[in-house]
Amino acid sequence: MTTLLDVRAAEGRIAAQIEETPSLRSPALEKELGVEVFLKCENLQRTGSFKVRGALNKVEVLKETGELPLIVAASTGNHGAAVAFAARSAGAAATVFVPTNASPRKLELIRELGARIETHGNDGAQTERHARDWAERHGALYVSPYNDADIIAGQGTVALEILRQAPPLDAIFVALGGGGLLSGIALVMRELSPQTRLFGCSPEPSAVMIRSIAAGEILDIPSGPTLSDGTAGGVEAGAITFPLLREHISDYVMVPETRTRHTLRDFMRTHEMRIEGAAAMTLAACRMQAREFSGGAVAVVLCGANVDDETLEGVRKGAT
């Protein structure tokens, strides 16, 4: 089982290859919500999302154990770009399987980073199953975006930085798809700041992990379209994140699409930063819950910045 020691070891492996992104105050949100708001800016991270942390840690662990194989990933975009970046940095080859609805901007980034792209399925879980099967048939190594201890440890380094950068926090709001980021953050916070509440945030049309936890088992249910494409899709059977989240996380928020769109539109007007739908969804969850912490301090992980210009323009005009 992944521990705080594993997260600290991951930080040592990847520190020279990532950005220690800032935790910035948000005057606009603080005025609106009546709490101190710290934005953990993983939208400024290399490859445009936090995912590079886990991918780099995985590849560094593989390097420690021997020769690197062909690396295979399944992704809606950000994990694929992260794996492509990590593989290229280590001189390894990577193939990334993506669903048919993957963001064009994210696909372009994966190609620029040198990975081969294959398209399969219209849901993240379908794509993951196919990628895993393909890797087994071809003697390659499949790297899950969340169902992997090294990935979780890498993502947990976000929490170590938040603890260095921000005062004691009442809550942290974290995007939740398969649960790699939230699991990693939970491993750190339960040891170093157990009083901080962690909120797992998912879009209402694609809240598979939240619904699975409520049901007590991983559900095979469809996901609807969502602006938060980075958290969309199903959860792999046997995912190690499922029991971890059941044990350590009790607060979840399902965010309506209208709130995500309005929050992204407001953010573009009040902040000079680019964020993607999953980050806007997490901010929307904070807006829904933050008054509970009036006079206190909260953090929101802005998980990524990889969104198409057309999508942003549609949101700005109210068409998306």
Would you mind describing this structure in some detail?
This protein is α/β, with parallel strands linked by helices. It has 2 domains: 4-48 and 149-317, Rossmann fold (3-Layer(aba) Sandwich); 51-143, 3-Layer(aba) Sandwich (Rossmann fold), CATH 3.40.50.1100. The protein is 48% helix and 15% strand. The protein has helices at 4-14, 27-33, 51-65, 78-90, 104-112, 124-138, 149-165, 180-192, 208-215, 241-248, 257-270, 277-289, 309-317, and strands spanning 23-25, 36-41, 71-74, 94-98, 116-119, 141-143, 171-175, 197-203, 251-255, 297-302. The longest helix is centred in the middle third of the chain and has 17 residues, at 149-165. The model has no long low-confidence stretch (mean pLDDT 95).
Give structural attributes.
2 domains, 4-stranded parallel beta sheet, alpha/beta, Rossmann fold, 13 helices, 320 residues, 6-stranded mixed beta sheet
What is the H-and-E element order? HEHEHEHEHEHEHEHEHHEHHEH
Classification by helices and strands: alpha/beta
The first-to-last residue Cα distance is: 41 Å
Number of helices: 13
Number of E strands: 10
- Kindly state the mean pLDDT as a whole number? 95
Specify the CATH class of the largest domain: Alpha Beta
Strand order of the largest sheet: 1-2-10-7-8-9
Largest sheet: 6 strands, mixed
Strand % is 15-25%
Tell me, briefly, the overall form: globular
In the CATH classification, which architecture of the largest domain applies? 3-Layer(aba) Sandwich
Topology of this protein?
Elements: H1 4-14, E1 23-25, H2 27-33, E2 36-41, H3 51-65, E3 71-74, H4 78-90, E4 94-98, H5 104-112, E5 116-119, H6 124-138, E6 141-143, H7 149-165, E7 171-175, H8 180-192, E8 197-203, H9 208-215, H10 241-248, E9 251-255, H11 257-270, H12 277-289, E10 297-302, H13 309-317
Helix pairs in contact: 1-3, 1-7, 3-4, 3-7, 4-5, 7-8, 8-10, 11-12
